[in-house]
Amino acid sequence: MLVDDLGDVNITNDGATILKQLDVTHPAAKVLVELSNLQDQEVGDGTTSVVLIAAELLRQANQLIKDGVHPTSVISGFNLAKKISCEYIKKNMVHDVSKLDADTVLNVARTTISSKIIGHDGDHFAHMAVNSVKAVEQVSALGKKKYPISQVNILKAHGKSAKESELVDGFALNCTRASQQMPSGIKNAKIALLDIDLRKTRLAMGVQVVVNDPSKLEAIRERENEITRDRIQLLINAGANVVLTTKGIDDAALKQFVESKMIAVRRCKKSDLQSIATATGGKLVGSLADESDEESFDPSWLGEADEVSETRVGYGDLIYIKGTKSRRAQSIILRGANDYMLDEVDRSLHDAMCAVKRCLESNKVSPGGGACEAALNLYLEDYARTLDSKDQLAVLAFSEALLTIPKNLAINAAFDAIELIAQLRAAHALPNKEGQFYGLDLEKGEVRDNLKAGVLEPAMSKIKSLRFATEAAITILRIDDSINMAKQDDPKGMASDHY
């Protein structure tokens, strides 16, 4: 539970979120905070692991330096171990998704969610993460598949339990109709997306109207109303039956929309309208002015959808845009008892979606539950013995540091870490690589083949976390001295003596 100086509370299990919220002043610690943020941006999952590995590497390096090994030797040994580790993972611990069964991607999502607050409903949220990410698939001109998870819109609604969160095929907008007299649903929607004010037109700042004839005053006022009316008429003539705008709509304009049996929604988020424009094939219009100094609205700017409707969810209403023409849009409506729960479910689901995205884009997975780290630990120990320089000590320290992951997994699951790690190392030492994919089973407190058990992670997550953690540790190890630039205070009264 994180409580800031304003009293705002955050309850989270996400490493990057915790470190982001902490007011870290130590310069070396700031490197680790940035490290977890980088892992969050690049992979989306493994933010705690990467900091644990980096911290353990620093602890091991500190011990070596105390024993008289020069930091340069430690750094070169760590760099060598990182290179060998990444090559070993790519060669021995990575599997193509296509060669494993159809549940592979689902298992990747389950593994990510298992350590989160929604772990007990892991199956439900894993399906949700996989289905939503697969639905927004895009194929580039070169045939490469991309999964922009920003296309999945996540909304939060109080009430019900987390398990009653649902995936909606379409875009959900956290707004309501501008008037209750408008229809609650429209089929074959033609959507106008505006970044324009539909209120009574007021002249811009600095523009003045000088009136010589007082009888014309009323005509000027009427013209101000007519400008907005004409703009709405342009939308109606273009065939629009749904209007979404980021600005306001006043009562006079609402009357026109109600009479035309249209749905109008005001004060939408601009980012939401940009997503809707992409999904429906429409265009977000910032001005109706055309080349001939007139105002016009081209029908090709309208987005298309099978249905736009307002639906009650929890204590509020949402606008659903279903059957978008250009590209599939997905929305997830999260339910929960309070804001803290909803925020944490959002973060957990985002991590799972990132893991699924990386898995689908790279088509590579590796076994989790400490399997990669245990395999690397034994491999690096054997490799270190072939070295005839001081690098040997650093490579051994690197291999020892990797065991921090299975060690912490065992401790968090309330099992004896020393015994489990001994069993894990014994399994990996079996002849003919029989126990190569063995990791921890944290339900029963034993070791098992995690590749068969479906405890999987994107291979990219493993490789990047090793690289990032090593680079962060090396950055700190390179530092000889920390020089604090103290701000020089003015002597009292000096400022007031000089004019």
Offer a quick outline of the entry.
The protein has helices at about 15-20, 25-40, 45-65, 70-95, 105-115, 120-135, 215-235, 250-260, 270-280, 340-360, 370-385, 390-400, 405-410, 415-430, 450-455, 460-475, 495, and strands spanning about 1-5, 10, 95, 140, 145, 150-160, 165-175, 185-195, 240-245, 265, 285, 305-315, 315-325, 330-335, 365, 440, 445-450, 455-460.
List keywords for this structure.
3-stranded antiparallel sheet, GroEL, 9-stranded mixed sheet, elongated, 499 residues, 18 strands, alpha+beta
List the helices and strands and how they pair.
Elements: E1 2-3, E2 9-10, H1 15-21, H2 27-42, H3 47-66, H4 71-93, E3 95-96, H5 104-114, H6 122-135, E4 138-139, E5 145-146, E6 152-158, E7 166-173, E8 185-194, H7 217-237, E9 242-245, H8 251-259, E10 263-265, H9 270-280, E11 284-285, E12 303-313, E13 316-324, E14 330-336, H10 339-362, E15 364-367, H11 371-384, H12 391-402, H13 404-412, H14 417-428, E16 438-441, E17 446-449, H15 450-453, E18 456-458, H16 459-477, H17 494-497
Parallel strand pairs: 6-14, 8-9, 8-11, 9-10
Antiparallel strand pairs: 1-2, 3-15, 4-5, 7-13, 7-14, 8-12, 12-13, 15-18, 16-17
